[in-house]
Design goal:
Largest sheet: 6 strands, mixed
Order of helices and strands: EEEHEEEHHH
Number of helices: 4
Strand order of the largest sheet: 1-6-5-4-2-3
Strand content: 25-35%
Shape: globular
Low-confidence stretches: none
Helix content: 10-25%
Number of strands: 6
Length: 135
């Protein structure tokens, strides 16, 4: 797992830590989204990673994403309540600036100081992991 860098203390962003050996990789993810009518919809999708499951839905509609473990126990990797975000290290290590700027610019994930701290230069740059400089 890549090292997560968080530039500033943000009380609206909570990093979920499950131990050193947890990695939500390929498997089934349960995604809870809010429909335009206001009710919640649960969808189970097969994905290679948490960010892959995230990108399959409209970001603004996603309420939570949980990795379904081998014994059918859901482990939350992403959740939001208004502007507050709860995200696991495996999610933050893969999220890119474009994922955030698309529709989550009014949440705790969006932070221009964060982008500067990890040397993010484009929408394809990682938002919470150090990006290599292109020479």
């Amino acid at each position: 797992m890549k090292n997560i860098i968080i530039a500033q203390r943000n009380r609206d962003l909570t990093v979920l830590q499950f131990g050193t050996n947890f990695e939500a990789g390929e498997g089934t993810y349960r995604v809870i989204t809010k429909a335009r009518a206001g009710y919640m919809v649960s969808s189970d999708v097969k994905a290679k990673s948490a960010i892959d499951a995230f990108r399959r839905f409209k970001p603004k509609a996603i309420q939570s994403i949980a990795f379904i473990s081998e014994n059918n126990f859901p482990i939350t990797v992403f959740a939001r309540t208004g502007k507050k975000i709860f995200a696991s290290e495996c999610f933050l290590s893969q999220v890119k600036v474009g994922d955030i700027n698309q529709e989550l610019y009014n949440t705790a994930l969006y932070n221009s100081f964060q982008y500067q701290a990890v040397n993010a230069k484009s929408w394809d740059s990682f938002a919470y992991v150090m990006n290599e400089e292109v020479k």
